[in-house]
Design a protein that fits this description.
The complex is a heterodimer of chains A (114) and B (112).
Chain A: E1 5-7, E2 10-13, E3 19-24, E4 31-37, E5 44-50, E6 53-57, E7 64-68, E8 74-78, E9 87-94, E10 104-105, E11 109-113
Parallel strand pairs in A: 2-11
Antiparallel strand pairs in A: 1-3, 3-8, 4-5, 4-9, 5-6, 7-8, 9-10, 9-11
Chain B: E1 3-5, E2 10-14, E3 19-21, E4 24-26, E5 32-38, E6 45-49, E7 60-61, E8 72-74, E9 83-90, E10 100-102, E11 106-111
Parallel strand pairs in B: 2-11
Antiparallel strand pairs in B: 1-4, 3-8, 5-6, 5-9, 7-8, 9-10, 9-11
The chains are: A mainly beta (114), B mainly beta (112).
Amino acid sequence: DAGVTQSPTHLIKTRGQHVTLRCSPISGHKSVSWYQQVLGQGPQFIFQYYEKEERGRGNFPDRFSARQFPNYSSELNVNALLLGDSALYLCASSPEGGTKNEQFFGPGTRLTVL
Amino acid sequence: AQRVTQPEKLLSVFKGAPVELKCNYSYSGSPELFWYVQYSRQRLQLLLRHISRESIKGFTADLNKGETSFHLKKPFAQEEDSAMYYCALLNAGGTSYGKLTFGQGTILTVHP
C-alpha cells in the first residue's frame, strides 16, 4: 500500500481563484482529515470526514469546504483564494472516525497563492 | 480552548547525550497526547501516544497532569534522531471531534 496519497503535489494560483485538492486514504480507512500547515507552524485542523459525513470542523472560514466520496477519497475546496491561504495542505486517514485510531498523514499539497 | 506549546524551536545536542523535548498543554477534559516526527523529506508520522505507554526508538514520554506536560525524552541521542518533532493533543468531542491540535514543533539536531 502506498499510504495516503494526495494530488497535486504543488499548485500555484492567483488571488480570487478557486482550488480543489484531492486525497486518497489508505485502503480500508473510512475517515479523512484535512490540515493546513503554514511555514514555521504546526498543522492546523480544517475538517474530519467519516463515512461521507462531516464529523469535525476547525476554525476556518466558509470559503473552505470538503466532501468525501463513496470510495472514501476526499476533496478539499477553497474559494476566493487569499495570499494567506498559501500553505502545505495535509490529508490524514484513519480506520475509524474521531478518537479511535492513529491518523496516517499524506505527503501534502503545496499551494502558493500569488 | 485547547492549546499545545513547545517552547523550543531549535534544540541541538551531541550524539550520546540525553535529550528532552518539552511540551505543555491546556485542555479542559481528559487529554490524549501524541508525539509526531517528520524526518527530512518524509511525511509526518506518529512516534508515540501516551495511552500506549510504550517506548519507540528509545523515546519515552510521560503525561504529567499536574504540570500539564508531556515531555519527550531519550537517554542517548543518535544522529538519526535529527528531525522535526510535534506534540499534539486530540479533541474527543464537540464540533472539533477528531481534531489534533499541534504545537509549533521543535527541530532536533544531533551532532556527531
